Amino acid sequence: MSAILPLRIALYEPDIPQNTGTILRLAACLGVEAHIIEPAGFPTSDRAFRRAGMDYLNQVRIIRHTGWAAFEAWRGGAAARLLVFTTHAPRSYLAHAFERGDVLLFGRESSGVPEKVHAAADARLRIPMREGLRSLNVAVAAAMAVGEALRQTDARPLGDS
To answer: Which residue segment(s) compose the domain that 38 sits in?
Structure first.
């Protein structure tokens, strides 16, 4: 497996396995570390991902956290900024200055993240959308956010010039 770039995607208690699989594939292709904060709404073992056809599993570093407290303990040790993506944020992700080591966190497809997660965030960011529309698919939002963060930090997958 090639070196992981110091940018991370975190999924807070994901509840749609297909979206998680798409985000893990994104992480594999772009060299981004993936964190899953449990409990998820589906099995998240390597075996379950392989059964779901996640053939990129060997190309992504997946770190599982048994819950929010375990993730926060890890994050404290890593000294990583937490950037929560939410439709309720006042600031566009395009106006944010990303840094290497940031954790881009995306909530449950069905309910986002609870207040304790919002309170822990170093920044709350939104993807601007047309008025009256509820939200983007979480995998699409993750791809947009990771693309912008990689662009700003000039981080590229190995072999890309």
So the answer is: 5-153
